[in-house]
Amino acid sequence: MPPGVQGRLDALRPAGRYQDDEPVATIDGTQVALTSWWPVRKPRPYPHRLPSTAPLVTGQRVLDAVFPILKGGAASVPGGFGTGKTVLLQQIAKWCDADVIVYVGCGERGNELADVLAELAQLTDPRTGGRLADRTVTVANTSNMPIMAREASIYTGVTVAEYYRDMGYDTVVIADSTSRWAEALREFASRIGALPAEEGYPAGLASALAAFYERAGRVAGPGGREGSVTIVGAVSPPGGDLTEPVTAHTQRFVRTLWTLDRDLANARHYPAVSWSGSYSRDSGTVGSWYAGNGDPGWAARASRMVTMLAEADRLAALADLVGAAALPGPERVALLGGRLLREAFLQQNALSPNDAFCAPTKSAALADLVFDVVDRSGELVAAGRPPGDVENLTSPRDPGTRGDRPCRRGRCPATPRRRTRRAGRAMTPMPPVEYSTIDAIRGPLLVVRGVTGVGWDEFVRIRLDAGPPRHGVVLDVDHDIAIVEVLEGTDGMDRLGTHVAFNGSPFRIPVGDGWLGRVCNGRGEPIDDGPPVLAPHDAPVAGNPLNPTLREPPAEPVLTGVSAIDGLTTLVRGQKLPIFSVAGLPHLELATQIAAQSSAGGEPFSVVVAGMGLPHADAATMRAALEDRARTGDLLMVLNTADDPVVERILTPRIALTVAEHLAFTLGRHVLVVAVDMTSYCEAVREVSSARGEIPARRAYPGYLYSDLASLYERCGRIRGRPGSLTIVPVLTMPAGDITHPVPDLTGYITEGQVVLSAQAQATGGYPPVDPLSSLSRLMRHGAGPGRTRDDHLAVAGQMLASLARARTVQELTELIGTDALNDTDRTYLAFTTTFTRDFATQRPDEQRALPDTLDRAWQVLAALPRRELTMLPTELLDTRLPRSDHA
């Protein structure tokens, strides 16, 4: 029953089929339908709040065994981009033992939401045997949707959860991410002119966070039915800074914190939950519950694991100074215990059917097994056995090869079916009316007064008393005042001699394959001495958000011919994978090489290059390097140079993406858009925002920078039922190498990975100077592996990255104690780093490597390590590639 409705049943309609909004009963004169409405920002009432006592089983060992959460509790997952927040939350949504899952994609990447929807439709619910989607509600809000939809999305999700809670179900709300929700609050506050508080957020941010997380809890609902709402919210702090406002305030209102660690993520340790930076204030309650439900040793087991991990961290810091070989035997056993816990217990394989979910009984058995090995190792060392021999006997293998996942049982409500109504009306374009009422000229902007019937993003024609005509786009409308961006700039314009005519429709350009082989400026005008581009169709350059349910998850690779990318961070068709660089590094050369060499395995393929704020020399170099591809009719270049109007720079990527969308989704081609330099684009957005007099946010950028970038990046992807794809590789320079700068920080949260160029790698003389441990392709598993590239691709890439992480640790140790104090295994890792750089990562700017050559080179590099160190490669693969007779 709807809240507040009670009393005598006056009438009840007979059994049958009814519309969901049709009354079926009357209670004390109030008609009741099958559905009801509720304001999402207002919590649904309940008679009594109950204490939470039972744990929510997530199937993730580090959470269930060390940092548990109660049903009815609230948890936060802070972590920088690339640390695995989304994967962890999706795993919790798939495997936790709640009755109903409400997954809220709040400002989420469109491709990842499409992936979630596709997987839910295919996965079998181990509780019921039906579809997992049947007990899941997905609130799909992508980063390029309106900010108010993003702000309302988490309230919608928690209200749906409360509805099922009132029916007696245990529900879980997964909010990914609350930082994007807070960005919407900041953007809205900026637009209405509210005075900003810390880092530009509204002063009421803490109250808004408290109101959201306090809706978690276990209650006795109507009729005495007990149910719960558990909230798990991701936080995306800029640069992993846990002191920023959203993270700091969130920690005040949750009882469980799962902090994700950048170093663990770089080492491909999943889940990358930091055991030193995480906590659960409900461990005592959970221990009591397990003691009464068949596992009295849970509390002691959790306490011992925390103690072992803390001691191992302390000894690891000491070993960095004096070397592990200098430690006494018992302390080396303690180091071994920490390593076994990390690699054999805490680490899981989210892609393995055997290890994606782990029941509490299995977790307890694995932990006891680790304890037994550590205890026996201590006994051997105490009996005089050399610690090195004991360490070699206990090298862990791939945790993804463990036993089968047990089934879980439970109940699941039916997913309600809702009807949708469509409404629309024809739009009649306004006749062009010329206005001469120019109120002000501010930088690249015109302020026109006395306008009527003008809409946002409308195309504008500008006539001057002296000089050629110009063009513009409406940025904002307030009553009878319109703010117009002048594409050619306002230099030489006079307020009294300027006349403006609004076109009645958005700025549109012709679209078709006639653009291929051409070079144009940022306004879409040819600069290659060719004729204007004509086509039977045109399209608005602003684009439109794509419904996530119409997206097809990215799949199949785009091969760039660059080993560091194809082998370790594979680019997938429909993905957005940025390149992060620093001034002085060869990012332009790498972007040009990718544009020149990329292919889609023989299928129709085109490249669109959007150059923004490029020096003339760089623009000329890029044109010359891509001349061969342009002659084949596969390339379009949209170039805006550093001295071109700033407003044209804002238009450049939109023109490139509009042409690319038509080539991909109408003509069925696979299209790669290379956009360089996005930092110049963002500087242009900031300049225009300043001219408009807007209240600045972080580092004087406008509060809507996230939404602006999302409106570009989210135009990539694949559409169900259409053969083409649109892939984006944005290139940006990080000012002073600061990855926490708003441009790389916001880009990282919208895109699906990053390729990071490093000054340290550049210093070795290798090209391209890619830092493989800081680089990541979130969608690599969709574009690499069996049936896509080669069966061994994913395993080899994972092992290579894990070995590089270990090698980096050894290098840091060497700087402290020298090579003489290293053991033989550590010395092989030093040699491994050199071999990797020389034989795998380094190649010429004009060298195109086939993928089989790249993977064969990877095997040659891995052969430098002892076989016992290759713990992420399946045994059968090792036996084929590195037989024991040939490899120790």
UniProtKB/TrEMBL annotation:
SUPFAM superfamilies registered for this protein in UniProt: C-terminal domain of alpha and beta subunits of F1 ATP synthase (SSF47917), P-loop containing nucleoside triphosphate hydrolases (SSF52540)
One BP term from GO: proton motive force-driven plasma membrane ATP synthesis
Keywords carried by this UniProt record: ATP synthesis, ATP-binding, Hydrogen ion transport, Ion transport, Nucleotide-binding, Translocase, Transport
Ranges of residues in domain AAA+ ATPase: 71-263
Tagged with keyword ATP-binding: yes
Pfam family, one: ATP-synt_VA_C
InterPro entries: AAA+_ATPase, ATP-synt_VA_C, ATPase_F1/V1/A1_a/bsu_N, ATPase_F1/V1/A1_a/bsu_nucl-bd, ATPase_F1/V1_b/a_C, P-loop_NTPase, V-ATPase_asu, V-ATPase_su_B/beta
Extent of Basic residues compositional bias: 408-424
UniProt-recorded Gene Ontology molecular function terms: ATP binding; proton-transporting ATP synthase activity, rotational mechanism; proton-transporting ATPase activity, rotational mechanism
SMART domains listed in its UniProt record: AAA (SM00382)
UniProt keyword annotation of Ribonucleoprotein present: no
Region (Disordered): 382-431
PANTHER family: H(+)-TRANSPORTING TWO-SECTOR ATPASE, V-TYPE PROTON ATPASE CATALYTIC SUBUNIT A
Family (UniProt): Belongs to the ATPase alpha/beta chains family.
HAMAP family found in the cross-reference section: ATP_synth_B_arch
Function per UniProt: Produces ATP from ADP in the presence of a proton gradient across the membrane. The V-type beta chain is a regulatory subunit.
Record-given protein name: V-type ATP synthase beta chain
Gene: atpB
